Amino acid sequence: MDAPKKLIVGYDLCEDYTQISCYSYKLHKPVTIGTAEGMDDCPIPTVLCVKYDTKQWLFGEDAVACAAEGGGIRIDHLLSKLKTGEETEILDQKFSAISLLEKFLRKSLMLVKNYFPTQLITKLVVTVKDAHPVIVDGIYEALYQLGIERDRGVVMSHVGAYLYYALSQDKALWMNDVGLFDFDEQGLSYYQISLNRRTNPIVAGVKKQDLSDSLNYSMIDQRDLDLNYIFKNIADTVLYKQIITTLYFTGNGFEGEWAESAIKSLCTGRRAFLGQNLYTKGACYAAKELSGDRKLENYILLNEEMITSSVWIKVYSDARVMEVPLTQAAVPWYEVNETIEVIPEDEAEIEIILRNIMTRDIIRERLVPNHTPDRPKRMTRLGINLTCTSSTNAKITVTDLGFGDFYPETGRMWEFFIEI
To answer: Residues 74, 184: one domain?
Structure first.
């Protein structure tokens, strides 16, 4: 692989398999790397194994083979362990879920080192199917233990990676809406990207449909079912009257002859692509974009986990009334955690302004903490913290901070919940 200007890495971390890609500045696209010569496109089992005799840690296919031969202890389901906080006892020693993930990341990222032994990773994007806040925080902590802090490492969902992948292709492929069918052990889902070109910057949003009730993984082995017919009916219903330029298909549920026949039937008037490395390449495109090599600076990529409104607060500063941003839109809700301190003029009334980037609506919310401490004018400090409980709901926590040595803080807190 060519020596890059920057070392850009996309890492698709799944419960069963992991895929890694690096951006090739020679080919102008991500290239998937693997564990064996000539097998670069093969996914890496998300598995660790500790050998009984040497206590050596193995990963991937080596770990699977060693455990299958009875030569060591197999450790898998790393993301489930991360989500539940489960500890694992291995040879009389306990390991946290984060430490196990750190070992897997360290060993698998050595594959990148094999190609680029002298270069540090410029930007790494890890993409996961379930961007649960606990999983995301755990991955960030594991990356931190590897020496990759948030200025170099980013975690995003598969939907986010799909957005970057689709919009990094030739513009002719996303002249209209773009669709993705994802079919794996968790079932069939459909994601459609729509672009609002009336806004500036242009907003690219995604809508999801869960179709698992109509087609799920267990149905593949049922010989009396015509999967081609079932999927074709589902797709025709979903795509009815939709202007779709391109369709993507991913997930091991689409393996087999039935899938090729079904996909071909949907190609009339559309381009269609079937592949199993869309998310790792999407993460790689995202890493390139976030490293400063911008091609999408005129677009806001808005996935289902992101808030659609920026949140501002009205304050008096430098002899004038002004609005200060607490958070911008298009940020994953679980990453919103901003704090500002204010000194109320009279009543402790807080004005919050919401600006929706999709509708351009502006909403003003007035929050009034009841029973604030009775102090002289301008002798109270309030800490205002903004977090989100979902992509559509925010929590604002107001805390009495007192006023230095004159008036100690009372610790009194007020919580307000607003739709954003």
So the answer is: no
